[in-house]
Amino acid sequence: MFSIGIVCVSLFYFLAGCCESEVVEEADMRHYSHLSLAGWHHEKNGSLDTNFITVPNLVAGSPSAEESSAPGWEANGLGKDWTAVRRLPQALIIGVKKGGTRALLEFLRLHPDIRALGSEPHFFDRHYSRGLNWYRSIMPKALDGQIVMEKTPRYFVTAETPARIHAMSKEIKLIVVVRDPITRAISDYTQIISKTPNIPSFENLTFKNRTTGQINSLWSPIWIGMYAQHLERWLTYFPLSQIHFVHGERLISDPAGELGRVQDFLGLQRIITDKHFYFNKTKGFPCLKKPEGSSKPHCLGKTKGRTHPKIDPEVIRRLRDFYHPHNQKFYQMAGQDFGWH
């Protein structure tokens, strides 16, 4: 009888333990299933809707040493918080003006592992005196593993910026969108006259002396297109392996191909593909089929794709002659021929 009593008591505790285990497991899983990850969304990939995601700790007791020491994780009563923080950028689109930098930035913001500032901060050329803490404070919050980036096309042609960026980070990745310098100059002029319509004609501003045909290389729309001269400064501080050139013409004709190469350069999975684009015949530019957070197609604003003024073919010919040696030197320095003949 004594033995039978022991067996009964043991059986009772065994069954009670199983039931309790099932109740605890069911309760934990029910808690897990009700957690909302709605905040895990990149609105235009410029800002996070929430700063953290709570993941339940399904194992009773304290977190392990490995868990508690993991960066970005903080233990609480129910689980852990993975917190997005502001960091200095790991990649920059540094140029060039009217090359397609805005299009590139908008396309890249589709990638879930890219956190890009929407506006141009002009930190390294205009606001450097504000310091790196200010620069970090305006960056979008990012999780570990996401790449923070911004674009300011003027960086490429500003003498002080390579040294300043190098002082911030020696490993930073630099992206330059280049375009036929003549087409770029005309696009630049088109933007200028939209704001100041009473300036002289493109032809008059292009030459120091129209009679002799001497090109005014100090006029900004011409000067910016002398890519080799600007690149030389960057190569003093950064190896060519840290600089990626986006072909501006191919960014229009084959956006998915160019974006694929940029994603490779940044060490990211090729998530942005041809399924994201369609060609808008009216604007003459590729547009996004479904940008982040929207079910409607999206093209760049009215300031993109303006109709260029017609330029005297003789002026175009003289500019071709002027840019030819600059282009050849740039091809040699960049290690690729962009075909601007």
TrEMBL record:
Protein's UniProt name: Sulfotransferase
Xref: InterPro entries: NST/OST, P-loop_NTPase, Sulfotransferase_dom
Active-site residues, as the UniProt record annotates them: 98 (for sulfotransferase activity)
Binding site for 3'-phosphoadenylyl sulfate: 98-102, 179, 187, 304-308
Keyword hit for Glycoprotein: yes
Organism field: Anguilla anguilla
Annotated localization: Endomembrane system; Golgi apparatus membrane
Molecular function GO labels: [heparan sulfate]-glucosamine 3-sulfotransferase activity
